[in-house]
Recover the amino acids of this structure.
């Protein structure tokens, strides 16, 4: 009869295998098991290699433990030297070496190597706790946005990642691995979306109290539609300073918000605040904190410290009518 300890271990292994299909790892927005580009596919392969390899090692250890319990040597001693050298030294060295070699090969797809294809460039700068996005090669000059990245599908995209403050981690799991944003450095990762779609990302390096609310979304468009998307961004916002005095909302925005938030899509905010030129067409507010609806925008303006405590935006001392006026201005001015 199988010893009780072995029965428990076998039962645990069977339960783990049965639970895998229920783990919710497949076809999820942040799943590495649902790759959507050549940068993510090798990572998925490494994951499966590690999973099946770990399962094989687990079963091997389970089998050896069962054998040792059922077939003790006459003197009661197990072959310690063979187990020590084989299982404790040789096996880990071989496994780690194979994983290292396979992992290095898998990372080649994310290196910005020379290519005959046209490469689309996006600059992403991490802030506590949001993402600054710019398109330096856009027609007519650089364009600025925040927390949403628009790229052409089927085209290599070099993402130049940097940071304004602390270390952040740029990671879009379905398109590739993560890369750190390190103060004083710019790191480059090459991604490509095989098909148009929406790909979610996060900050993968703890960066402070609102680390969990630092989401981003990558929108991959058909390549032929990308010029129109950039043109729409260029046409959003306010490029004439006189327009900032037309309404009460514009005047309130100029007085309380303009020092940190640019409204011209071709200007980088002078202070660490997101460019709001295309806010009206963004899906989320506060880097994924709230869905972007008229009601949520007004709630965010009034209670942003309650919704995302510790964020760098100061509280404006305005009556409700003032917040409503600013919200109206943003809704009408930030829609292409």
């Amino acid at each position: 009869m199988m010893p009780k300890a072995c029965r428990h271990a076998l039962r645990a292994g069977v339960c783990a295998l049965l639970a895998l299909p229920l783990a919710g790892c497949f076809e999820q927005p942040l799943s590495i098991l649902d790759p959507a580009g050549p940068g993510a596919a090798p990572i998925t392969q490494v994951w499966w290699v590690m999973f099946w390899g770990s399962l094989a090692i687990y079963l091997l250890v389970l089998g050896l433990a069962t054998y040792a319990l059922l077939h003790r040597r006459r003197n009661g001693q197990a072959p310690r030297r063979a187990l020590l050298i084989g299982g404790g030294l040789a096996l880990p060295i071989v496994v780690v070496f194979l994983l290292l070699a396979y992992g290095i090969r898998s990372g080649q797809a994310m290196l910005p190597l020379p290519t005959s294809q046209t490469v689309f460039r996006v600059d992403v700068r991490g802030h506590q706790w949001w993402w600054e996005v710019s398109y330096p090669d856009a027609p007519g000059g650089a364009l600025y946005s925040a927390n949403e990245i628009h790229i052409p599908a089927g085209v290599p995209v070099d993402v130049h990642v940097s940071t304004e403050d602390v270390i952040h981690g740029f990671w879009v799991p379905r398109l590739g691995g993560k890369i750190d944003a390190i103060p004083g450095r710019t790191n480059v990762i090459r991604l490509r979306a095989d098909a148009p779609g929406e790909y979610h990302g996060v900050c993968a390096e703890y960066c402070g109290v609102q680390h969990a609310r630092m989401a981003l979304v990558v929108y991959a468009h058909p390549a032929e539609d990308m010029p129109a998307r950039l043109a729409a961004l260029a046409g959003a916002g306010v490029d004439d300073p006189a327009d900032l005095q037309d309404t009460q909302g514009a005047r309130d925005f100029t007085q309380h918000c303009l020092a940190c938030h640019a409204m011209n899509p071709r200007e980088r905010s002078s202070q660490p605040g997101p460019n709001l030129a295309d806010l009206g067409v963004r899906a989320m507010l506060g880097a994924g904190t709230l869905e972007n609806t008229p009601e949520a925008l007004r709630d965010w303006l009034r209670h942003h410290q309650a919704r995302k405590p510790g964020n760098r935006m100061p509280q404006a001392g305005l009556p409700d009518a003032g917040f409503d006026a600013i919200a109206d201005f943003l809704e009408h001015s930030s829609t292409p």
The radius of gyration is 26 Å. Residues 67 and 234 are 70 Å apart (CA to CA).
